[in-house]
Amino acid sequence: MQAVIRTRSAATRRWQHTVAALLAVLVAAAPTLVGCRESPGEPVRIRIATGSPTAVYHAIGQSLAGILNRELPGVRAEVVVTAASAENVRLVGAGQAELGFTQADVLAADPGPDPPVVAVARVYDDLLHLVTRADAPVRSLTDLPGRRVSVGAPGSGTEITVNRLLAAAGLDRVRRDRLGLDDSVVALREGRIDAFFFSGGLPVSAVAELARVTPIRIVDLGEWTEPLRRGNPEVYVSRDVPRSVYGVEPVTTVANPNYLVVRANLPESLIREVTRLLMERRAELSAAHPAAGRISARAAIVTTPLPLHPGAADWYRASKP
What we know:
The chain is an alpha/beta fold. It is built from twelve helices and ten strands. This is TRAP transporter solute receptor, TAXI family.
């Protein structure tokens, strides 16, 4: 215990020693860091682009914001509710957020030599859910043509993955609604749609709550991983959803990695500390959502196609994951 306390104290002292220099850097870089710092007397602002309030990105983002606020003097972190992955990448790239969560399949296969958005870590895998009522006739992906299906909100990673999936399956007669997770749950419960897709880490709390009040089925999508991999060989894998997660029949589905991304021009010292806390406070993050328990320093460095931010890379080199 004393060793842990000494380690934490040493890290805090290192941050305190660098925070004044960091603030000076941010002030000097103000023309390119619009929105990160409001005035010389204000704390460093870190906006974390997440997703729906009932989904995984938001739960982990809220916990991470609390950790940063508690442990980094001079930092003010807050979460931003968004449509999720695609919007998060856009916000970070545009300087309207400093950090964001995204699925890997949202990213350009070739981000170029000097991308505006880079990676802090690979965090966990998203699993694609196809949810329907237990008494509905939707038992496979090929049952969807002619039915009304929510494919995810505009700007979400879910919509991108689902559009690729439906194209791979040759299904162009699906009646697509573009609803977010919370609206999809309500629409399914009220019978306004026949099924909905959502991509998220296990468990997705909105799906778990729906399963407690409405008999549901999660449709097996395991056979579609390989067709999707033909165009995206480094992204998609198969993962299981066991019975214990939602209390329904176990299935296999399509999964792809999630990354925590950051604006490339943020200072190395700041992102080094963000990376350290992301890794060292995994137990606290997993208390906010079990998906965070899958974060590991060894897997975190695999962020294809994005390079790591130099501050993140520096922390991983020093920790030798």
